């Protein structure tokens, strides 16, 4: 399967689905994995999970009403392949970038924003904000403010 979801009208059936991450929406996970077991066929799914994905995985388990099986792997075996995987990932990203992947999505977003009444001169700014969301930061304008921020951080971490 391609890294992106296949269109809804596609009826691809595969033996194995590999998720390099846990989707943020549990229904997306079910949709992807469901491609491996259609029409009474047996199918498998492998999902790479980090400590940051546990909450997402729990949401999937809650949606499907069962616990997923954990497959333990040797750290040594994994590290052998990490470089190859990272190189392949970067090559794929470059190919997608060169083929203008996502251009249609941006074009549709632009059209939707214009249709919703947003002025044309604001559309590019909105698209840029959507593509590159910035994190909110706390202004540290004085030593006093900085002390408050440090105290809050200390309280949170204990």
Describe what is shown at a glance.
InterPro entries: DEAD_box_RNA_helicase, Helicase_C-like, P-loop_NTPase. The chain is built from six helices and two strands, in the order E-H-E-H-H-H-H-H.
List the helices and strands and how they pair.
Layout: E1 16-19, H1 26-34, E2 44-47, H2 54-64, H3 75-98, H4 103-115, H5 120-131, H6 143-157
Parallel strand pairs: 1-2
Structural account:
Helix 1 links the parallel strand 1 (16-19) and strand 2. This protein is mainly alpha-helical. The N and C termini lie far apart (44 Å). Helix 1 crosses helix 2 (54-64). The protein has a domain at 1-70: P-loop containing nucleotide triphosphate hydrolases (Rossmann fold). Mean pLDDT is 76; it is low at 1-9 and 140-158. It is extended. The chain contains six helices and two strands. The protein has helices at 26-34, 54-64, 75-98, 103-115, 120-131, 143-157; strands at residues 16-19, 44-47. It has a two-stranded parallel ribbon with strand order 1-2.
